[in-house]
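User: structure tokens for this one?
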Amino acid sequence: MKHLTILSLAILFLSAGVAKSQAPVTQSDVATSLQAIITTNKAQIDAQQKTLDGLDQLDEQAQELKTFAKRS
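Assistant:
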């Protein structure tokens, strides 16, 4: 049991050391990533706005249909 605990702690410390040895992230990498996220978000917002516009038109048409149905 003691050996298992020591082995797991050793693996934990070794894996932590590997994670720290990765190349540092530069500001240009962060800026590029953020720009990609912004572009993706804008595309999603545009698609959602088109969907909302279509739903608004559908609602207006439904209201007109209700109005014409009441007149007859």
